[in-house]
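Progress against Task 2.4 (sequence-to-structure conversion) is shown through the following example record, which the project officer requested during the mid-term review.
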Amino acid sequence: MAPTAGQRPPGPMLLSPILKEKVWGGDRLRRFPSKGVTPGSSIGESWEASGLAEDPSRIASGPWEGASLRELVSELGTALLGPLADRREFPLLLKLIDARERLSLQVHPPHRDDRPQAPPGKAEAWYVLEGGPLVLGLAANTDAGELAAALREARDPSPLLEHVVARPGDTIPVAPGTLHSIGQGVLVAELQQPADITYRVHDWGRQGRELHLEQAFAALDPLAGHRPRPGPLELVRGNNLFSFLTGCRHFGMERARLVEHLPWVRATESVELLLCLEGRFTIGPRSAAQPLAAGPGDTVLLPAACPEVWIEPSEPVTLLVGYPCRLERELYDRMLAWGFAGEEVASRIFPA
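Structure tokens generated for the chain above:
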């Protein structure tokens, strides 16, 4: 039996990944041995943290081992989600995506505060691990009508699209309504709102998968797409480097490069996710006899009520950090504490 919320404050938790086969998937998540991906497989996605009803993540070890994130939301409430507990859902979806082939050309809908019965919105951001081609929006001087005509006539829409080359370490925000596609050979970590809604408009000749032209064009923002963005905002603490990458009113995405032990400074009063991209470390209260150990590909969840923890790298560590927001103001306040404000922060925030 897992402990109840009243017994003790919940500490760091390791999450079990959910591997998903896709027609476009590959086997490059083998770079993370803990995933158990076999050569020649077609694993397109590893869901690192999900509270969705159809596929909730489960706790991998410790007092809550085997419990799902949905169960934790119900059992822990404010101790897990802090000020977001009233939403009664886990506020993020974190994935790794391996595109052996290019993904469909697609659009995600926006979040509608004024329409509770509308499909949930899906803002997302990618952190590029292995680079390659992307589609981000319509090409200059192209409108949605031209794209619709090309699709009706079964023409290749590629000339009408904005093509971008992503490089390792790039951060790509994808606002709702953006026409987009992850291209062949790209490997990304994706942080997004907790929705699994995709409206496909074109599938590059693959057969058997439904298209959603009516929904896609209703959600499409013809002006959304690739815009040059500045690099991250950086903060040095000792020999450790922290970078704010991007964010919106629903979440923030950061990167931490750690070489020496430190007390972990929380980004939010709510839950926080730490995806280890490289290196090994332990995390737990400074006096913990058995701190939680994590390595490449592991995702650690820090509940809102988690006591102060220390991270002890055994080798240089890179963490992708994701956390939920209620308002863009929370991102401005966090960066103000780092010494940044105004336009410096605004240029890293995207509309959602």
